[in-house]
From TrEMBL:
Record-annotated RNA polymerase sigma factor 70 region 4 type domain positions: 109-157
Keyword Nucleotide-binding: no
Any Gene Ontology biological process: DNA-templated transcription initiation
Full protein name: RNA polymerase sigma-70 factor, ECF subfamily
Organism from which the protein derives: Paenibacillus catalpae
Domain of life: Bacteria
Length: 239
């Protein structure tokens, strides 16, 4: 009897997991993010009570998943507004004849106040909208390390914004660093997350290696395109 009851409970749990997973996928439109959301919803449900003991476990779990998703979207919206405020502040200091200068200033502030890891996580999570698991996989980290780095990056954003608004950042004297900032601005405007990650994961005092790595990666991509009979992509880096 006990074995039969356990098998019945396991089947019900499997059914509920399927229901929650499909619902999370319908919300997020991303399989990786859906798995992350479903896991968080289950953890919240287990913390409060046993889902199977609820009168309507399906509705109970889906409500938790929906509320969790709403909280995530609200947090992401808040941080995106914060990022936009940083960029708008940067544009205030930009010269009329160069729209990239404002972005360069914002990138300089990010390089100044965030560590290489924090920059990479911030760009992937808050700027490009990657999930924690996707970011962890791309950067070779645990999900916990990603969350910790993102928390520290977000905590530094007020300093980033203040530096931009006050115009306290000095123009970089190093030509290599200027190249990095220009390359970052171009990569940002074109949505090239791979180029941004290559550049920001090097220390701000190591501009030459950063540019060299980026150039090498793009040269390999260009070579591959030629072998496949495609046109050579633009290098996209201003001197």
């Amino acid at each position: 009897m006990a074995k039969a009851a356990m098998e019945k409970e396991n089947k019900e749990l499997e059914r509920l997991q399927g229901v929650v997973s499909r619902y999370c996928l319908s919300l997020t439109k991303s399989r990786v993010e859906a798995e992350d959301l479903a896991q968080e919803a289950w953890l919240k449900a287990m913390d409060s009570s046993q889902p199977l003991e609820h009168v309507n476990p399906d509705a109970y779990l889906l409500r938790i998943a929906r509320n969790t998703w709403i909280d995530r979207v609200r947090r992401q919206s808040t941080h995106m507004r914060m990022l936009e405020a940083v960029r708008q502040s940067a544009k205030h200091h930009a010269m009329p004849d160069d729209s990239l200068i404002g972005t360069e200033i914002a990138m300089q502030a990010i390089l100044t106040f965030l560590s290489p890891l924090q920059r990479a996580v911030f760009l992937m999570r808050d700027v490009s909208g990657y999930s924690a698991q996707e970011t962890a996989l791309r950067l070779g980290l645990t999900a916990g390390a990603v969350k910790a780095a993102l928390h520290r990056a977000r905590a530094a954003l007020p300093s980033v914004r203040q530096a931009i608004e006050k115009g306290s950042l000095k123009a970089p004297k190093d030509e290599g660093l200027r190249d990095v900032l220009r390359a970052l601005a171009i990569a940002y405007d074109s949505g090239d997350i791979e180029a941004m990650l290559t550049l920001v994961q090097h220390g701000e005092l190591e501009p030459a290696p950063a540019i060299a790595v980026l150039q090498s990666r793009r040269l390999r991509a260009a070579s591959t395109s030629i072998r496949r009979g495609k046109s050579t992509p633009s290098m996209g880096i201003a001197a």
